[in-house]
Amino acid sequence: MAEHSYLSDPDPEFLPFMAGIIAAAPQRFDVEERRALFVSATESAKQSFAPQLPKDTQYRLQDRQVEVENGGASILVRTLVPASSDGVENTYPLMVWLHGGGWTRGDVELDDYQLRTTCVELRISIVNVDYRLAPEHPHPTGLNDSYAALKWAAENAGLLSADLSKGFIIAGLSAGGHFAATIAHRARDDEFFKDRPLTGQILQIPPLVNPNAVPERFESVLLSHEQNKDAPVLSLKSIFWCYNQLGGNPADPEVSPLLYTSHQGLPPAVIQICGLDPLRDEGMLYDRLLREASVKTRTSVYPGVPHTFQYSFPHFKAAKTWEQDYRAGIRWLLDGAQ
Q1: Is residue 111 part of a domain?
Q2: Is the N or the C terminus of the chain less surrounded, counting Cβ atoms within 10 Å?
Q3: What is the DSSP annotation of 33-49?
Q4: Structural domain of 185
Q5: d(C-alpha 25, C-alpha 76), whole Å
Q6: Residue 335 falls inside a structural domain
């Protein structure tokens, strides 16, 4: 979108760090090397958010195993439930969270501290999903794992002190946002969710279309693919690599959810987009397509900052705004997107 090109101008707070991040970017696309770097980044992110952690007595944390593939395997989910503040057993809305990492990296540790804080501050039960990773487990394994976890959460709402009528949200960041967007479509069309529908979706910096499958009608719109092709943190080359690791048919809507023939009937969406990100314009286009399908959206854009900037630079003004918008978005969804 040419009218959005200014969003790539580096944020003044980020500009002094930009050259260093580009220079430090790994030059090889090796899964294990990138996983090792991701583990280090996860620990740094957790330490950044540690000062905000609520007391252990304010929530209940439990790691559980969820069966997937009809008993052929299981995955870990970490559940967080607010502790009762008045001695009375209460029920809460429920959010299922899917982590980022380009489908190839990450686990429940990445957003663990932020989710603990969200659980307590917003009084919401959370299921943090440790889906299996590509390339060892190519598409649709991670997606199916996440969907199985969503169904498990719905069936075990009582175990989580959750009342789905108070709110039932699917949420994720980056690759997790991609899964969340796809799952919102799956759940819309699944009889399982007829009497317990999703009431909201949160899509943070989501990849929504494989660059190899961009329809001609959208090519002139998705300018940020090329404009930000060498962006710090996430380059266009990295995006191609990640999709190649994921596998699947690029034109399959479950790989490229932007390509679903209909977005009607989806739950309201909170979308967060970074300006200095090759994924920027597909996020903005998706917002437009949802609104054209009469889906309510609440979309925020952060000019001049790259993909996942909020992890490395939580002290930035834009990062603080990101966190405020995220919490406000959850409240908006829980208030019926009014």
Answers
A1: yes
A2: C
A3: HHHHHHHHHHHHHHHHH
A4: 2-330
A5: 31
A6: no
